[in-house]
Specification:
Structural class: alpha+beta
Number of strands: 4
Distance between the termini: 61 Å
Radius of gyration: 18 Å
Order of helices and strands: HEEHEE
Number of helices: 2
Oligomer: single chain
Helix content: 25-40%
Amino acid sequence: MRKLIFIGLLSACTFSSCVVSHSVGLTGQPIGTKTGVSKVGPFMGKDASLKAAAEQGNITTIGGWERTTKFFIIPWTVTRVYGN
């Protein structure tokens, strides 16, 4: 009986844990032509900060940013920075 309850709870948690979060921010600066991306999740990078994305895209002035997080047992976060 315990195994059946455990399997039921594990299945319920596994199949009901998908949430997508999306946020966007503008700084008042021009959007620019460069894009930088930083990711964090399993088998990905360890830093999803705005600074890491700006460094990856060689951006000195951030015009806007976008962050998407997906949860399915383990969260994945992708940050995109736009600027010059």
